[in-house]
From TrEMBL:
Keyword tags: Ubl conjugation pathway
SUPFAM superfamilies membership: Hect, E3 ligase catalytic domain, Protein kinase-like (PK-like)
Entry GO MF terms: ATP binding; protein kinase activity; ubiquitin-protein transferase activity
Key word Iron-sulfur present: no
Region of interest called Disordered, as start-end residue ranges on this chain: 169-204
The Protein kinase domain, residue ranges: 1-71
Name of the protein this chain belongs to: Protein kinase domain-containing protein
The keyword Oxidoreductase belongs to this UniProt entry's keyword annotation: no
Domain HECT residue range list: 138-166
Organism: Pyramimonas obovata
């Protein structure tokens, strides 16, 4: 296999095998030239064209073939060039869009409670919830108090609720005076449905 002719024939055979392994067909030779089917890897296409040169003198040698990017470029780099690996900025942007979509489409419960009757109000509201409503995130308003719940009011509600349960030994029978606003909860279609007046919408 030391002759140039034999080496060229071997490289042709390598090209044929590589083509068949990639496309599961025989190479298409027409007009004295090899015609490679479309493929995502430009490096592979260039290599096949070099291996399947009809003129043996123009065909790649072993050393030439091994120096081609198809063999020298890293697999990760090939995936990156073929856009099969996303850049960090693209990943972050997709994550932001996904989180924004979840926030816009999620179901939340707008809950209005009286601080003095917090335990009784919370228990009463949860008892009236139907289906999966009790699983929705809360958006809490304390009646008569300013504030927009960005997570802090919900945390405060749970903390105060359990502290009062532990201190009182159970659920007290609390009742508001006739002139006080009554507790309410309503399901909202998205986190963006704010309740700026603290009215909480229609009661469940």
């Amino acid at each position: 296999k030391g002759s140039g002719a034999t080496s060229a024939a071997d490289m042709w055979a390598v090209g044929v095998m590589l083509h068949k392994a990639t496309f599961n067909t025989d190479p298409h030779i027409a007009g004295g030239a090899y015609h490679c089917p479309p493929h995502d890897s430009e490096g592979l296409v260039h290599l096949l064209h070099g291996l399947l040169q009809v003129d043996p003198k123009q065909r790649l040698s072993v050393n030439d073939a091994l120096s081609y990017p198809y063999f020298t470029a890293s697999f990760v780099r090939q995936l990156y060039e073929n856009k099969q690996i996303l850049e960090s900025d693209s990943k972050l942007e997709l994550l932001r869009q996904h989180v924004k979509s979840l926030q816009e489409n999620r179901q939340v419960v707008l809950m209005r409670v009286r601080r003095k009757q917090l335990v009784a109000d919370v228990v009463s509201i949860f008892q009236e919830m139907e289906g999966d409503t009790a699983l929705y995130p809360l958006n809490v308003r304390f009646i008569g108090e300013p504030g927009v719940d960005a997570g802090g009011l919900t945390s405060e509600l749970y903390t105060e609720f359990f502290n009062r349960l532990l201190e009182g030994g159970g659920v007290p029978r609390e009742a508001g005076t006739p002139d006080e606003d009554q507790p309410q909860a309503s399901a909202s279609g998205g986190a963006g449905d704010e309740d700026p007046n603290g009215d909480g919408g229609e009661p469940l």
